[in-house]
Amino acid sequence: MNIALIAHDRKKDDLVQFVTAYRYIFEKHSLFATGTTGQRIIEATGLQVHRFQSGPLGGDQEIGARIAKNEMDIVIFFRDPLTAQPHEPDVSALIRLADVYRVPIATNMGTAEVLIRGLERGDIDWREVIKNMRQ
Ligand SMILES: O=C(CO)COP(=O)(O)O
Question: Active site at which residues (predicted)?
């Protein structure tokens, strides 16, 4: 699975903690992240992470483009709902594309826990499920 990891500044500690706790799951997948988030995860865990631009410099849009190409299977995006972001349109666009392409997206740690445990159980074969629904 290709997993995108993103966190706003005040949520970065939470995401680093989350990835560290579930390292044994994340290490089995391909990880992608916005610039600063990716740097923090690499420093804390030593995991291999493909880093895009920093969010405000276009990283959210780069991940959105991957979603539009069906190249992202899960998005974990710890948003800060209490701080205005200069690149809010990019944030909205990324979340919108996840909905357009029905990509599972967790915007807080509660949902991320559910997703990652589902992934551990092998439950996240959602592309198959959606394909069957369309038939
Ligand atoms: O701003 C972000 C997402 O909108 C995150 O970007 P960074 O990981 O580069 O801080």
Answer: 60
